Amino acid sequence: MRLNFRFIALFVLFAASFRACAGTYEYGSLAVLLAKGYFKNDIDAAAPLEECVHFLNSHGVCFSLFDVQDPDAKVTVEDFARVVGQSTLLFLGEAEFEPGSQCIRKPLDAATWVDYCQLNDVSFKNKFEKFQSTVSGGYLPEVSVFFK
Amino acid sequence: MRPYFYKFLIGVVISLVAPFSIAELSEDVLQKSPRDLGNAVKDAAVVIYAGDGGQRQKIEDLGSLLDQVSSVGSEAAVRYSVIGILVAGGEAHIDDGAALVEKQFSTGQYREIAFYSLARTVALMRGRAVERRTESTADASLFLDLPGAGTMTDPLGDFTAADAAFSAWQAVENARKVLADIEKSDDPSLIIAGRDALQRAESAALRAEVYARKEALAKARDVMRKLRVVLKRAKESGGLNQITVVEDALRKAEKTEADAMALFAEVEAR
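^ inputs. structure came back:
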């Protein structure tokens, strides 16, 4: 009985460490949640990861393909604020692009995207926390299917 | 004369060497982390794609980059370098990049990882599924309350609040008819009660209408924002038919806004 308990404890420890090593593809999860939440009428609820990323990138809400395919890349607050801010600008009709760039640029009156969100009452902090708890719960189906 | 000759000679040597040096990754770069190496490959590939060399020269230079990455002996380095080559070429060069990667890794120990990365990067760039579609369990409601999130449908078509306000005004009309009959009677208390009821019905109808107009206003403003984006893009791409349709829709939304504002001003004045 005691041996069984030890075995189970070891297995749980192993599984936890394996999951930590496996990475979480946070940027992929962010793309899926953003596309299917904010753009839910433009993106099919059953759309795969690649469709979400392509849709967002083609509208100037930029996701680096290095980040999306990096299992260990962590979404930073600034990057989270950036995609939320870019999406907001897109819907407000105020999106502007740098010459030669495919990405919506940060308005000049804000030093960072976090500043932009705060100056314009775009709530993102609670969303960021909820996002972190979502990704800590494991892969989204779209992500696990794409990287299987 | 001689200094000019040397300058000319140096120029010739640089122009001969430059195309080859572009495709060289320094030892320092090759020692970097796989992801940094992938970024360095991307930067080098951007220079190659933008260069004056012919298509064949470019493919050779890109192939040389991948050869150098293979010599590092890391699967992750190969993976990020494949991403780097494709990202550098952009959508315009997806086919060239894919053909190059397939040729370069058609055999050898990195074949599997190179082809895996190639398929996924191409899928992400084109937005086409490489796997079956997935029903998500993700709670995407996280982003639903951002400004502008919601439908792109015409908000002027389906207002339950507007329907309620319309019904309320119909009830007021009926109440007025009933009151007109009551006022013919000689019962003062009944007349007072009838007038009071009519006043309350009018007040309720007005509140319902303000509520409906507020809802309409919010939706109209949302739609106006979206339409302005569409209009901007249509003007950039010169889609004349689209511009007319969008401008009509914008005028309709602006009228809703103006009507709502007029009613609010009227209510305020009371």
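The two ends of chain A are 36 Å apart (CA to CA). Chain A touches chain B through 49 residues (CB under 8 Å).
thumbs up if we can close this ticket
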